[in-house]
Amino acid sequence: MSRALLRSVLELRAPSCRALPRIAPFQQIQPRCAFNTTAPIVEPISPIHHPNNAANPTGSQVRPIAFKKSHPAEPPAPIPDSVKTLLPLLAAQPGHYITVHIHGFPYLVQEGDQIRLPFKMPGVLPGDVLRLNRASVIGSRDYTMKGAPSIDERVFECRATVLGTESEPMRIKVKTKRRQRRKRQAKSKHRYTILRISELNIKNLDEIEASS
């Protein structure tokens, strides 16, 4: 029993001489999947100058492509004596329309249309005929005549008949002020004038010359 205890004590004091496990040398691990490589993109060192890209365009050089002209082609030349040439064609076509101005408000109407003015026209009665002599556009299906800013009143005749006046229901708005018990009622009842375009004619050159 004593020999066994002595042997165990000696083994504890002496360094262990057990053989370490043998480790295999490092081996290169082969990848399970490989990636396809593409050729690198090489940018040109100096930009290629296009012959049409002139830095400072002159008479012999062309304007750069990056800059576009606002009018690549010259606008068409105006038709000489367009009023004398196209006015008979405009007058011959049916279905004329006109943009008349009444107290600064433009209205696009045809013959037979009704206009509800946003105010009550003073000095008119139902049945009165008004001559509308301010217009900016007159046209038909294929032709349009524009004024700068208005068309000569000798070119057309536009008359409107007063049908009457309309009124909206009475509106009452209660107005109050902060920290005051007093209340004030504001009543409003707007009235409107109703017109009907009874006549719309476009004159010919002979009628214009005769009237002038």
UniProtKB/TrEMBL annotation:
<keyword id="KW-0687">Ribonucleoprotein</keyword>
<keyword id="KW-0689">Ribosomal protein</keyword>
<comment type="similarity">
    <text>Belongs to the bacterial ribosomal protein bL21 family.</text>
</comment>
<dbReference type="Pfam" id="PF00829">
    <property type="entry name" value="Ribosomal_L21p"/>
</dbReference>
<dbReference type="InterPro" id="IPR036164">
    <property type="entry name" value="bL21-like_sf"/>
</dbReference>
<dbReference type="InterPro" id="IPR028909">
    <property type="entry name" value="bL21-like"/>
</dbReference>
<protein>
    <recommendedName>
        <fullName>Large ribosomal subunit protein bL21m</fullName>
    </recommendedName>
</protein>
<dbReference type="GO" id="GO:0005762">
    <property type="term" value="C:mitochondrial large ribosomal subunit"/>
</dbReference>
<dbReference type="GO" id="GO:0003735">
    <property type="term" value="F:structural constituent of ribosome"/>
</dbReference>
